[in-house]
Design a protein that fits this description.
Strand order of the largest sheet: 3-6-9-14-17-19-20
Strand content: 25-35%
Radius of gyration: 17 Å
Order of helices and strands: HEHHEEEEEEEEEEHEEEEEEEEE
Distance between the termini: 53 Å
Helix content: 10-25%
Length: 192
């Protein structure tokens, strides 16, 4: 089955994924967000059936490396398909991933409850905000990372391997390998 929609239909999505300003209220983007909500609902409904649950996760996310991914409900994804997870990913309840740009999550990563991952950003200029413009920058989380509950990871951040992010931290800058970060904004408190 071919898609008969004109290429202009996807223009805002292409801008979004390229990190350019895009119109967040674009009909195509609204439709994609609605599809993600339906997939999140299916995820919650299949939780007690391991095979269907695994298929629901694969349907929601862009890439799933293995069947050892666990996502506790309720959760929220803007699109889902822009999130790519490695082996043995665990996401506790009440987490949010605004995946307007690509989110890469490595192997053996665990999210505590209420972790927030925001690729979306909004212009500082009030006139641009009134126009409905926004932009997004990708986030990359390395292997063997623990993200403590109620932590927030902001757009454009890369987190290295073997990192612990203390509960309640706000990660605004890149984090190197083998450290513990904590605070608002998060700072290195220990080297491993």
């Amino acid at each position: 089955m071919t898609d008969a929609r004109p290429s202009e239909y996807y223009a805002e999505e292409k801008k979004m994924l390229a990190g350019e300003f895009y119109f967040g209220n674009d009909p195509n983007l609204r439709q994609l967000r609605m599809e993600a909500r339906h997939k999140v609902k299916a995820l919650a409904e299949t939780r007690d059936d391991p095979e269907r649950f695994s298929e629901s996760i694969k349907s929601l996310l862009g890439t799933v490396v293995d069947d050892q991914v666990i996502i506790e409900s309720p959760v929220y994804f803007d699109y889902g398909k822009n999130t790519h997870v490695g082996k043995c990913f665990y996401m506790n309840a009440m987490c949010t991933i605004l995946d307007c740009a690509r989110v890469d999550i490595g192997d053996y990563v665990m999210f505590g409850p209420n972790v927030q991952v925001y690729t979306a950003e909004h212009p500082i200029d009030p006139a641009s905000r009134l126009e409905g413009l926004e932009f997004a920058r990708p986030i990359k989380i390395g292997n063997n990372v623990w993200v403590g509950g109620s932590s927030t990871i902001l757009a454009g951040v890369t987190i290295g391997d073997d990192v612990t992010i203390a509960a309640g931290s706000v990660v605004t800058k890149d984090v190197p390998d083998k450290v513990v970060v904590a605070g608002v904004p998060a700072r290195i408190v220990k080297r491993l």
